[in-house]
Amino acid sequence: MNNVPEVKLGIVAVSRDCFPIELSKKRKSEVLKACAAKDIKIKNIPTVIEKETDVLKAYEEITNLKVNALIVYLGNFGPEGPETLIAQKFNGPVMFVAAAEETGENLINGRGDAYCGMLNASYNLALRKIKAYIPEYPVGTPDDVAGMIKEFIPVARILVAIRKLKIFAFGPRPQDFLACNAPIKPLYDIGVEVMENSELDLYDVFRSAEGNPKIRKVAAEMAQELGKNNAYPDLLAKLAQFEVGLTKFMADNLGASQYGIFANKCWPSFEKYFGFVPCYVNSRMAAKGIPVSCEVDIYGALSEYIATCATEHPATLLDINNTVPRDMYEKAGKKAAGYQLNDLFMGFHCGNTCSECLAGCSLKYQLIMHRLMEPGKAPDITRGTLEGRIRPGDITLFRLQSTADAVLKSYIADGEVLDVDPKSFGGIGIFAVKEMGRFYRHVLIEQRFPHHGAIAFKHSGKALYDAMKTIGVCNCNIYYNHPKGVRYCGENPFA
Asked: Which of 299, 385, 393, 486 is 20 to 30 A removed from 39 (C-alpha atoms)?
């Protein structure tokens, strides 16, 4: 995925001048060995930081090695000023972690006191207003620290991506989807650029691509991907033209940003002018790591992109759509074992989920739009969805959202897609999340989240939670599905 950053890790050791510097050097070398054993690629920053002038030298080394995610390793107590100054100067994803003592046989000259040093590091990070990543228990052996570094990688990938991201929005958010209309000021606060355009601009993107020689190649790729499930071969040239136009627009307009995603108006006027629905194109863009949300859902596109960065796998954006009928739940039997009926829901969208996330797919028409736009007629302008069952397996349900008063909130819930036929249309699957009924009521409804949720096709709750904390979402505004017996704030204890 060219639109998802590669994390290039570096590790710098720090040492307080009243402790042996060799302790930090030796302990860092053991961490590097442990990383190699876990196949973690990481650059060694030669300078050990004791004083402020060391910060300048280490920063030069970090820059020359093209490191974009830094581990500050307290091999001993560490100098809280210089060690946090390097984090401030680096201005990228930074993890702070500390060494545990090795043996009870060497606690005089060989004691490092990094357990204590982490407290001062944390205090000084706050003084400098630096949101560093600190693991749940940030002190450990070299093998422990290597494990923590591995867990930092998806968090760092998200943070690098966000700071170099531009969201291209086309069209005003629709009247009937005001839930998608949220203030964009918080996006600038976390480093995301937004370029808003009109629906007419989107039409110009499409028309300007007419005659582009890449259209034939993209149409051939589409035909190969769809195979025998290509019900509308005559439509592929139009769809390919739209894909080529979007791709070129992004390349021409990234500017100072490195990564791009889209939030596009997709109905009802779109179909009358473009002559198709854009769902299949959106699915193909998602497969390339370039989510295209519908209904100009800017935060939905960002949520889908963050899920993609967390997993390095295409994600999707679905409506948290409808309940599962009791008879379907009962017939599912062992396939729904361990879940109550209210733990299940159907996730649905018109056809924007990429083919590799579906258990079989075909090019179809959008049934709901067809009822509205072409009643009693053969499908024409409502063609272009990619429909099929969403493949069974682990997922994480996720969204980052601004409230009306510009406060960032997020929800995260690990779950799975069941191997049960939803017997319906669109890109659809039966999702299972423990205590979903309560989560739906006391988080999604209570906290005013909209109908769209991003789906990561891998359990990635831990990385997403840590990323949300690190970008500055208040802990009390990161919601998750509480287990049975643990009340939500506002949940009636007598119910």
From this structure: 393
